[in-house]
Structure formats: C-alpha cells, structure tokens
Amino acid sequence: MRKIYSILIILVLLAPSLLLIPKIDAAPVPTEQENWQWEPYGPRVDEYLYLIITDYDAELMAFKAGDIDTAYIQATRLEEVKDDPNIYILSYQTFNLQFLGINCKQYPWNYTAIRQAVAHLIDREWIIREVFQGFGYPTESPIPPAFGAWSNPNVPSYPYSKELAKQKLLDAGFTYDEQANKWYDPNGNELPTFYIQVPPAEQAPWLFQEAQHIVKDAKDIGLPLEVEAIEFQALVSQIFAGTFKSFILYLGWSRVPTLAYELFRTGGSWNFWGISDPELDEYLEKFYYTTNITEAQYWLWKAQEKVAELLPYIPIYMGRGNVGFRTDIAGVVLNKPVGGQNYLTLLDIHRIPQPLGGRFREALGSDPRILNPFVALTGDEWQVLDMVYETLFIANPDEVSADYPWLAEKWTMEEIDVDGSKGMRITFYLVRNATWHDGVPFTAYDVNFTFWFIKENKPRQGYAKAFESMYKTEVIDDYTIAVYINSTSWAYLYDLNVPIV
Asked: Got the DSSP string for 159-226?
C-alpha cells in the first residue's frame, strides 16, 4: 500500500460527489457480506481485472449492465441505481473534514472570542439536514472521531446558540450598542465588516449556502459578518499566500493524524491560520517526537484541547461515501470504526456462492501509465500497484488507527544515544513465509535495499523525514533488520512503512 499524505482538498468542485449523499434505497446487503469476518490471506479470486473506462457515464452503465462488479456512486446518480435489485450499496464515513479556516492574524478574526462566537453560530444539524439531506457526521473535535484513539472526545464545545455567541463576546470585553446595532472591541474600536470566503454559488452552491446561514445568524446578533464570493483558484492562491480572511473547505486526512504537527505548530508548513501558542507548541513537540505511540496520543489529546480553545479552524462535519457492488459479491472489508475499504478487501473479495476462483472486475478512470512505486502518482496507478507491492504493516480493520502486522510480524522502537543526542532504533522482525512472485524468499535484505534506495535517490513517493535522518541499517539476520535514526519520533515508524521492492 502506498504512503498516503494528508492534503488540502482543493478540488472543491468534486466535493458534492465525494461527500454529500442523499437517502439511499437499494438492494439489501447480501447475508454473506453482512456476516463476513475478514481473513488475512488470499486472494480468493483467480483474476482481478481492471477495465479502463475514462467516462463516468460509461462506467455507471457498465456497472448497471453487470460488466463490472463495483463502482463509486456519485450523489447525483444514486437515483439511477437505488431501485436496481442487482446492486447493493455500502455507505461509510470518510476521513474528509469540512471546516471553517480562519486567518488568525487578520482583524477582527485575530480575537479568540470572535472565533469562539462564530463557532456558536454554526448550526451543524441544520447544515447536515438541509444542505446534505441528512448524510454527514457533525464534529467539533480538531481530530475527528474517525481517528479512533487519536481523537479527544472531551474538547471544549460550542453548541449552536446565538445567545451564547453574544455572551461569549460580552464576557471577553466586547460591547454592543443595541440601538445602533454595532459591536466594539475591548479597545473601543467599532468592528468593521469581516468575511467568510467561499466560491460563488454557481461554482459551489452548498458552500455558499452554508456561509449564508452562518452570516444570517451573525447579523441577527449585530455582527457585521458577510459572505465574500471568490473564484476558487483565487481563494486557493490567497490561502497559500496567507492573505485570506476565512474560508469553508475540506481537509483530507490519512488514518494516522501526523499532519496535526504541521497544522497547528508555530511555523508549521500547513499552519495557514498563523496560530502561535507556546503551550500548544509544547504539546505538539511532545506528540511528534516521542517514540511511544500511547504518549503521542496523550499529547495529541492535550493539543486538541488547546486547539479547540484557540479555534484556528472550526470543524463542521465529516463526509460520507457510497460504493455500489453487484449482489453476487461479498468479502468487502471496511475499516472500523469508520469507513473506507481496507487493503484486505483485495484478498477477501469473492463471488457468491463461489468462495474461491472466478474473476472480479473494476474500472479505472484513467490509463495507469507509470507502474514504478517510487514515481507513480495517480490513484489509478496505485490501484494496480497495491496488487503487486506490500508494506511492513497495514491498517487494522477492527480499529483503523491501529496497525496490523503484514510483512513484519512485529517491531520495536527504542531511544538510543547518538553522539550525545537522542536518536532511535527501529527493529523489524519479518515474516518467514513470504516470497516474491518468482518464488524467491522475502528477506531483510529486500527491506534494506528499499530503504537505502529511497534515502539515496529521494523519490517523490516515499521519501520522508525518517529517511533523511537515517544514518545506518543493520541486517541482523535474514528476517531481522534494525534502522538507526539520529532523532526521535514515533511517526518515523510510519515513514518507513513503504512498499518493499
């Protein structure tokens, strides 16, 4: 499986298809799929066939005709399949978070109380009910519940209430002239008009509608908040330049929230908000640079409490996706507690009532032109590569934030002394029953080759901080390899979890 990086989802025009799901009435999920207990071996099918279908209409037509066995169902196309007795749909929460991102350096957004007051004006239940027809998951946690043990459920919350929003400002020293319907900051300055930026209604109507609703509630309590419609690419340019005001967009996370370190620390590469807080920085440093994952989770919980107080961004909801399958297909493995198909689906998928053999067919939306795991980039290329290359561990289907041993049966992480400074040694103990496609045994020498190839060549896929800081490896025996790094971080374990070549 490839290394997944958290990214700001800038393809905002795709968001309705990816996130917003109307009510679904489809064929019942087959009993065999409903009761399926995942297995870490396979594959069960003899052939996994990818058809290249670049047009979505053609892909959906092929799915309905039974020429392929699965397809992602866009929200606007659910009506076309919901009554088909040969199609069932699996629906799951995604890792995509919608949020209101705020420029904390820009007046009056630089006041924490302003951000907290606006947080009280976000009616998540209304947004999910009216804008997204009930499909979505409201959240206030900076690291949402989708991340299991990484998410702190006890962060400060801001229930929807115009009265609480107003009181939050008054408690912070703001004053309100009811007769003039004007607010003044603690220094006596009249609050100027400030903005929520979203693409125009014709470009992203759902975002515009959400922003309008927040602005209406703000005006009800006298706050001079307005919607600023801005062309999407222009907004993205402002975000990266740090000149934006505030915006509603989406953030895509990987299953382990290492991105939090860059999102919220002073000077972080993803800290678009300009937030800077010494206490938060301390928590984030301890989160990122410990070698103990339990400690990392503890410090991330502490960081979330601080982020929820400072509110550089305000979480709104997490999305939901739907994938259709033909009713003679079972063995789909979904991650828990929330969705996405686990890697083990590739091994467990099969036809009903045929537990072994046969063919599974899926469409690719583009031609996978590069099948080199160090330079491949597109999702379709990695769809194919995931069938060929494997990693040291995968996501545990029963707890997506946990790891499941794969090419490595176990591993250890230890702090060591490196010329008077802290470093670490990560030791992988490999399985003894894996072979390459030609029958040659898989050994620690393959892992060693892969790691040094990445360090020396710095490929765009896989090169990360751990390889930059790696100064030595030790092949202890055919099935044990130790990696020496001249600094410490639990996240280095995930940096090293690359496809082994």
From this structure: -S-HHHHHHHHHHTT-EEETTTTEEE-TTSPBPPPEEEEE--TTT-HHHHHHHHHHHHHHHHTT--EE
